[in-house]
N-acetyltransferase domain-containing protein (Candidatus Yanofskybacteria bacterium GW2011_GWE2_40_11), 184 residues
Amino acid sequence: MSLENPNSDREELIRAVLEYGNRLIESSMEMISVLPFEIKGEKFTLVYGIFPRESGNVWVRVGLFNDYQGAKLENGSSFNVGEISMTRLMFNLESSSVHGEFGTDEKYEGRGFGSALLYLRDGIIKDIIKKYKDKFSSSLLRSEIADNSRAQSENRQHDGLTTFLAKKMGYTKEGEKLVKDYII
């Protein structure tokens, strides 16, 4: 992937991550899947895990790695070795909410990885709503994302690309979180 035309690369990356992510979502609801793919000679791996909890909650974690070597995921809530972007979601069916975060390693910021995972996150939420519609206690699902972007952490007066995209997708800023309500 080159930086000569970042918009072209970003669009290609978003399409690839969505395509592969949707394949993983459709394959099973209790799993950890690892899917390698390549864009313009650069190797990436999408690691996707769905972990149901005894409480009835569902935890989903998606990580994007550059040249993944098959190492075990050591950390569910922050970056693992070689991970360049991640999002995690905790669905609480009883309170009809989903909490989580997304982030991109600062060496890879501006290349569209966070944006691609934000689109995938939206797809995951819609898929969970479709599959578990009868288990939610409300007709609205509230999604909250901790904004871990560099622009947020450095108290910049402008949004980073992923935060900007989240707002375009219907999220609003509430403190350090991005919030969106989905109709179930």
